[in-house]
Amino acid sequence: MKAMFNSLRKELLAPLVRRPRPLQVAALCWREAEAGREILLVTSRRSKRWIIPKGWPIKGQDGAGTALQEAWEEAGVQGKSTSEGPIGRYIYDKRDISGVKLPCEVLVYPIKVRGLDERYPECDQRERTWVPPKTAAQMVTEPSLKAILEQF
């Protein structure tokens, strides 16, 4: 009886109450340097860990447009998307102000950087740095994002 109940719960009830993860959009900002390709990382505002710019979808913008907007707001990026679709996706736990974790799915769009503004909306809240892709992969914490960076 217990096995039957567990089977019913797993196969019938779980899909009914499971909700899709909230979706965010990220910008994998890159440039060609003398030593090879480099990735732009920024610090998160609260924990100061290294991340790529990301945010919630913007109404009226596609994913690439949202990624470009987030890259400018968080890192002062002037650039353009180099792909019509995402080049990868990863999951991370976003903490709200109260500390509650919310698992989010993030679609990653590549942004080729032409320049960086010195003044941008979050310039006083974040640091930014250019690093090779393998170094970037070592600096971020999300395993799936590490893989995207290593393969880029």
Shape by Cα distribution: globular
Structural class, from helix and strand content?
A: alpha+beta
The averaged pLDDT comes out at 90
- Number of structurally distinct domains: 1
H/E series: HEEEEHEEEEHH
How many individual β-strands?
Answer: 8
Supply the CATH superfamily name: Nucleoside Triphosphate Pyrophosphohydrolase
As a percent range, the share of strand residues is: 35-45%
Short description:
By secondary structure, the chain is of the alpha+beta class. The chain is 30% helix and 37% strand.
Characterize the structure shown:
The structure is a single chain. The protein is of the alpha+beta class and 152 residues long. The chain has one domain: Nucleoside Triphosphate Pyrophosphohydrolase, CATH 3.90.79.10. Helix content is 30%, strand content 37%. It contains 4 helices and 8 strands, in the order H-E-E-E-E-H-E-E-E-E-H-H. Strands 1, 2, 3, 4, 5, 6, 7 and 8 form an 8-stranded mixed β-sheet that branches. Helix 3 packs antiparallel against helix 4. The longest helix has 16 residues. The chain is globular, with a radius of gyration of 18 Å. 29% of the residues are buried. The model has no long low-confidence stretch (mean pLDDT 90).
